[in-house]
Amino acid sequence: MKWDGYRLSVHVEPTGIRIVTRGGHDWTDRFPAIKQAALWLPVGTAILDERRWFSTSTAGRISACCNKSLGGRGGKKSSSDAIFMAFDLLYFDGHDLRNSELDMRRHLLEDLVPAGQMGDIRLSEEIEADGDQLLASACEFDLEGIIAKRRRAPYRSGRGGDWLKIKCVRSNGSMIVGYEKSGSAFGQIGSLLLAARKAGELVYVGSVGTGFNERSEAQLREAMDKIKASAVKYSGRRKNVVWIKPALVAEVEYRAWTHDGKLRHASYKGLREVQDNAEVYEID
């Protein structure tokens, strides 16, 4: 499974425990429960690689809960709700395992973190299954997707072909209710402001700032310049916003919904035409 959350590594060292982010920042003090669980591991030295998530949230809302629990972007809070999902072992009792095959690394990891444990450090278990069926199941349960790995591959930092990330992608029709200006964009569109229908009204569901090209930006700007004034209830603090009448429906791909009802990782795919099911998403 592709677990949502922050990518971290836990270093078990003779001098103690270090929890390090992908960017090299020491976040040990921010995860006291994971630190304590690492102290109990039956090993002298080790480096575990993982993706962590929160047990107190539903799968599709995990990152928002992560950010909120840690104080948001740039926050300094600590969290005891985090769960460490270990999926690889890079170093074990004085031995660098990065040149070992994945099967060997996983065998040692499963001895260190047995399957089925429900503590603050858990094993991200392997699943042998048909890829299409597994992806469909992951999407059905609102997970981000799946990861496919070559069994006999060594560990390599960075992006490569030995790991494949297959994401669940959703899409819907969202009403464009305005746009945020940008001096650097071709059509001066930094992002589109989007709305969905709820109980007969339009409600703000976030913005989309990717997926445009020069042609689509020009078409959008031409269409939006002809309509003004919005009918959406929006309490945000965006600057340089131009509001328009709700008349244009965008096809938007996204990964999930956040805990506060916004589209997550949205990408613009074009305008929906009336004959091409130009319906606006209805929120239950």
Percent strand equals 35-45%
Major β-sheet annotation: 6 strands, mixed
Note the overall shape: elongated
Q: What is the CATH T-level topology of the largest domain?
A: D-amino Acid Aminotransferase, Chain A, domain 1
Number of domains: 2
Helix and strand composition category: alpha+beta
What is the CATH superfamily label of the largest domain?
A: DNA ligase/mRNA capping enzyme
Number of helices: 5
- Average pLDDT taken over every residue: 84
Uncertain stretches: 54-65
Q: Element order, helices and strands?
A: EEHEHEEHEHEEEEEHEEEE
The Rg value, from CA coordinates, equals 22 Å
CATH architecture of the largest domain: 2-Layer Sandwich
Q: Indicate the CATH class of the largest domain.
A: Alpha Beta
Count of DSSP E strands? 15
Helix content range: 10-25%
Distance between the termini: 28 Å
Question: What does the model show?
Answer:
The structure is a single chain. This protein is α+β, with helices and mostly antiparallel strands and 284 residues long. The protein has 2 domains: 7-124, D-amino Acid Aminotransferase, Chain A, domain 1 (2-Layer Sandwich); 170-276, OB fold (Dihydrolipoamide Acetyltransferase, E2P) (Beta Barrel). Helices cover 17% and strands 36% of the residues. It has helices at residues 32-39, 62-69, 102-112, 131-140, 214-224, and strands spanning 7-13, 16-21, 46-54, 82-92, 95-96, 121-123, 145-149, 163-167, 170-181, 189-198, 201-208, 241-254, 256-257, 263-264, 267-271. The strands form 4 sheets. Strands 1, 2, 3, 4, 5 and 6 form a 6-stranded mixed β-sheet that branches. Strands 11-10-9-12-15 form a 5-stranded antiparallel β-sheet. Strand 4 and strand 5 (95-96) form a beta hairpin. The longest helix is centred in the middle third of the chain and has 11 residues, at 102-112. Residues 54-65 have low confidence and may be disordered.
